[in-house]
Every structure is written in C-alpha cells, then in structure tokens.
User: What shape does this take?
Amino acid sequence: MLTISVVIPALNEETVLPQTLAHAAKLGFDEVVVVDGGSRDRTTELLAPYLSARAPFPITLITAPPGRASQMNLGAAASRGEVLLFLHADTLLPAEAKAEILAALNDPACVGGRFDVRFERDSGWGWVISRMMNLRSRLSGIATGDQAIFVRRAAFERLGGFADLPLMEDVDFSRRLKRIGPVAPLRAKVVTSYRRWERSGPVRTILLMWTLRFLYWLGVSPRTLSRFYGIVR
Assistant: This one.
C-alpha cells in the first residue's frame, strides 16, 4: 500500500490549524508535516501537544520563510511518503480521503488528483461559488490549493515541485502535472473556510479572481498580479 504524507503550509493560522490537525489525525495517513512560515500568533504554540513522539498522532514541524510554494516544497522534502497531499490549514478532508486517494492511484498511469470542494457555509453564494469551482476544475483539469492536491512523489520531483511564485503556484503546478499523466478529479468534498470570500464580499472576490486568472492566462507575471491579490489571499 502506498504511503501518504500530508503537507500543511501555515502562517498565522491559530484559529483553524488545531481543528485541521485533529481531523486529519483520524484519517489514517502515514505522517503530517506542518511548515510554518514565521507565524506571529500562537500557531506553533498550539502545535505543542502534537510534537512529542508519544503523542497520539505526532507531527513534524519545520519552519521556513513565508511563501506557500517554498513552504510546500520544503515540507515535501522533509516528508517520507510515496504520495504527497498538500492541505491548506483551513481545510478539512473527507472521511474517506485516504481510501479515495489510494483507489485513484491504483491506476499506475494516474499521477495525482484533487478533491471537489465545498465551503463551511454551504448555502447562498458559498454554494454557488463552490459548485462553479468544481465545474471549472473538472472541465479544465486545473486544480487550486483549496482542493487538496495530491501527487505521486516521483511525479512531483520530475516537475521540480511548485514553482517559486507569489501566487498561482497551485494553478501552475496542476497545469504542468496534467501534461505528464492522468489526474483524478475526485468527487468527495473537502470543506474549506469561507473567510476569504466573506472578507471582501463574494461578488467582488469572484470578479477579482476571474480577472487575475484571465490576466495570468494572457501571460501576465504572477509577481505583477500579486500586488492585487493581497485582499483575497
């Protein structure tokens, strides 16, 4: 059976990371690596119960300069699993996540995959946005980090990991990944936070995200686009 390492990049996530870890602990993965990007809140302090080798579910904590791409790359390098599952700190995996991943990768041609997504607030705009995200991803073959991307380590290393980009690192990676083999669009849903959409309003955030993705598709540098992305990141 393939071994699976969960890699969680974190930065000032004291309000959500403990719940994410407690949930992941129940799902039977082989290890969890948290990569902290220099949190100034109590994120690392709250991880203390998980750091002992005698903890019911010990994790590995490493620190890195902030930057989701570099944090995930360092977490992958520090992990041992044959499969890497990249999980946002505010996202809960479905109960059947491990079985779903193993079933998808039972096909030796499959190089990775992602889950469908729904928000913790699964009504109104939250319901609409999540279904649009899932449909777009299924049609395009492109995934975002909210969807808990997983990949065989061999494929990850072949691609050189995530590109060192200030944003769109997930889109860039999934675009490159689908070029080297089939990617499984799992229908099981992760549950992710609605906070990004709530902060600036769903309509404004949708328009900004679509604009950024369109400009990225036209070839505008992610470093240029990152100047406008702070309000929704």
